[in-house]
Amino acid sequence: MEMKKAEPHIVVQDLTVAYGSNVILHDLTFTINRGDIFIIMGGSGGGKSTVLRSMVGLLLPKKGQVLYDGLSFWSAEPEEQKRIIRKFGILYQNGALWSSLTLAENVALPLQQYTDLSLSQIKKIVSLKLALVGLADFEEYYPSEISGGMKKRAGLARAMALDPEILFFDEPSAGLDPISAHLLDELIIELRNSLGATVVVVTHELASIFAIGSNSVFLDVDTKTMIATGAPRKLLTESKDPTVINFLTRGEGRAQEVIR
Amino acid sequence: MVSDTTLQKAELTLLHLPDSTMTVRLSGEWKSGRQLPQGEGFRRQIESAGMVSRITLDTKAVTGWDSGLIIFLLDIIEIGSEMHIPVEKEGLPAGVQRLLVLASAVPERKGVRRETAKISFVDRVGDSALSFWRSNLEILAFIGEASVAFMKLLVGKAQFRTSDLFLTMQECGAQALPIVSLISILVGLILAFIGAIQLKIFGAQIYVASLVGIGMVRALAAIMTGIIMAGRTGASFAAQLGTMQVNEEIDALKTLGISPMEFLVLPRMFALFLMMPLLSLYADLMGILGGLIIGVSMLDLNFMEYYHKTRESVLLNDLWVGLFSAAVFGVLVALAGCLRGIQCGRSASAVGEATTSAVVTSIVSIVVAMAVITVVCNVLNI
Fold first, then answer.
1. Between 20 and 30 A from B11 (CA), which of A19, A99, B19, B366?
2. In terms of Cα–Cα distance, which of A192, A163, A160, A152 is closest to A38?
3. DSSP annotation string for B220-262
C-alpha cells in the first residue's frame, strides 16, 4: 500500500458510556485514521462492544463525542446522523441477519433503502457481494438454514452492500474455527485494501490482533478506561503496563514472546 | 491394587505433641456424601487443647478422597489463620496440595462480588415509583411513535415490506379461525344455557335468542377474540421481536436507518387492525350458532323462530360497537406484543418474560378498553 499522511477519520473524545447509572467505561479518547484497521481490545466483559454501540449510534453516550470527518455524531441533526450512518457497514457478533428474509433479501434491503437502483441491478450487486464472501449458491437460503460461520460471512456481505467507508466488526472471529477465523482476517485486509475503507474491529483474539491491526486501543476491565493506544506489535515491545503485556502475551510475560 | 469392598469410615485423630505441635491424622475414605468430620468440631478441639504453635497434616492413612477432603482442609486452614496458627501442608498428597493452591489463589476482581447492601423501605418505594413512572413514559412514547408511523402509512410514506403485512394477516387471520370457531360456539352455548335456566322459569325461553345475539354481537365476540389473539398472536409478536432483539437484528435495522417501528411494528399492528373485526364478525355468527344449538335442542324453539328473534333484537348499532371494539382490541394486542418485544432484554429468559408480560398487558388493556367503550356508548346512548 502506498504510504499516505495519516488523516483522522473517526475521533473519539472523552467518551463515557453507561447503562443507566452503571458506568461501563469512562474518558476514552482515541483517533482512527483513514484506512486504518483499528482494534478495540481488552478483557471479556470490559465493555468493548458497548463502545462500539456508542460509535455506531445505538447507545447515547453519557458524556463525550464521536466525530466522523470532524462532525460530531451525537450532536448532529437526525438527517445528518442518517447521512453518517449511511457510510457504515456493521458486522454484528452473530451476523444479526434478519431471520424472516433470505440471504439475498438481507443483502438487498440496505440497497433498497438507500439507492434508486432497479431490481435487476440490485440483484446483480447482491450476487456479487455474496460471491465475494463465498456464498454464491446460498442466495435463497434463510439464516436458520446455514451454519454460524456462513451467517457471519453473509452478515459481512450485508455490511458491504453499500460499499461503506467504515466497516465495524464486533468479535468477527468469535465462534469460528482457526482456519475460518484466519480466512476472515484475510478478507478484512483484502476489503480494506480494495475498498479503501477504515476498519474498526472489536476483538480479544490475539492472532487476529497481530495479524490485521495497524492501530489499537486497550480497554482495562479494572480501571474501566483505556490504558494504552498504538500499533499492537509496538505495544507488545514497548508498553510498560503489566496489564497490557499480560494480555498481549496470554499472561506469559514478555520474555517468551520476544524469544519467539 | 487391593480392592476393598468395605469402605473405611473417614476419621480424624488429633495428636498434641509436647513441642506444642498439633498433628491432624486423617484416615479412611474422605469423599463427599459420606459422614465426614466437620471443621467446627476441629475448632472446638483446638480451642480446648491449650497451647498450639503449629498444625501439621498427616494423610498417609487416607484411602480415597475428593472435594470433601479439600473443603475440610480449607476449613482447617481458615480456622488456623483465624487463630494465627500456621498450617503446614507438606504431609498432603501432591494433588491435594495443588488443588488447595488453586482454590486459594483465585484473585478476586474488584467490583465483581454483588453488593448486598440493604435498601431501606423508603428507597424501595421511591425506586418502584420512579420505575413505574419511567415505564409509563416508555409506553406513551411507544404509542406516540406508533401513531406517527400509522399516519405515515395513511399517506403512503411508511417503509415496510407488503409481503410481511400479508404474511402477518394470514397468520393472525385465517389461521386463527379454528380456535375462534371453537371458543365462540362454546361461549354461545354457555350463554344460552345459563340464560335458558332462568328464562324458562318465566316461560320466556325465546329471549335466549336476544340474550345470545346482543351479548355476542355487542361485546363478547370482540372480547373473546381479543383474548384469543392476545394469547396467540400478541405472545408470538413479543417472542418474535424479543428474539430479534437478542440476535441484534433490531440493532442492525436501526444502524441502517430503518425504523423498527415502521418495519416491524406497523405491519403487525395494521394486520391485526384489519383482521380483528373480521374475526369478530365470524365469532358473532359462531356464537349465535352456539345459542341456536341450545335453543333448538333444549328449549323446543324452532330454527325460524330463533332466527327472527335474533334479527329483531340485534340492532345494527350493536354490530358497529362490536366491530369498533374489535378493531381497538386488535391495535391494543399488537401494541402490547410489539412493545414488550422491543423492550426485551438480551437473554433467552428475557424473551419468556416479554411474552408473559405481553399477554398480561394485552388482556388488561382489552378489559379496560371495553369498560371505557361501554361507558362512552352508554353516555352517547348508542
1. B19
2. A192
3. IHHHHHHHHHIIIIIHHHHHHHHHHHHTTHHHHHHTTT--HII
Residues A182, A6 contacting (CB under 8 angstroms):
no
Q: Where are the domains of chain B?
A: 4-103, 133-379
What letter represents residue A53's amino acid?
R
Class of B4-103 per CATH? alpha beta
Interval A143-201: pLDDT, tens: 999 988 889 889 989 998 888 899 999 988 887 888 888 888 888 888 888 888 899 99
A57: which chain B residues are within 8 Å (Cβ-Cβ)? 254-255
Size of interface A-B (CB pairs under 8 A): 49
Q: CA-to-CA distance for B18 and B4, rounded, in angstroms?
A: 36
Of B199, B355, B331, which is closest to residue B271 (Cα–Cα)? B331
Backbone φ and ψ of A258, nearest 5°: -70, -40
Angle among Cα B251, B257, B260 to the nearest 5 degrees reads 55
Do the Cβ atoms of B343 and B145 come closer than 8 Å?
no
- Return the residue in A52, A56, A88, A92 with the most chain B beta carbons within 10 A, the one to mutate for interface testing: A92
Which residues from chain A sit within 8 angstroms of residue B159, using beta carbons? 113
Q: What is the mean pLDDT of residues B52-65?
A: 85
Query: Which residue type, as a one-letter code, is found at position A179?
Result: I
Picking from A174, A191, A36, A27, the residue whose alpha carbon sits closest to that of residue A94 is: A174
Looking at residue A196, what is its pLDDT? 84
Q: In the predicted model, is pLDDT for residue B107 greater than 80?
A: no
Nearest CA to A90 among A154, A181, A170? A170
ipTM for the complex shown: 0.84
Residue A258 — pLDDT band, cuts 50, 70, 90?
A: very low
State how far the Cα of B116 lies from the Cα of B135, in Å rounded to an integer: 26
**In chain A, which residues have their Cβ closer than 8 Å to the Cβ of B251?**
53, 58, 92, 96
Mean pLDDT of B4-22: 77
Distance between CA atoms of A60 and A260, rounded to whole angstroms?
A: 43
Q: Do B248 and A82 touch (CB under 8 A)?
A: no
Q: How many helices (H) and strands (E) does chain B have?
A: 15, 4
Residues B153-159, mean pLDDT to the nearest whole number: 85
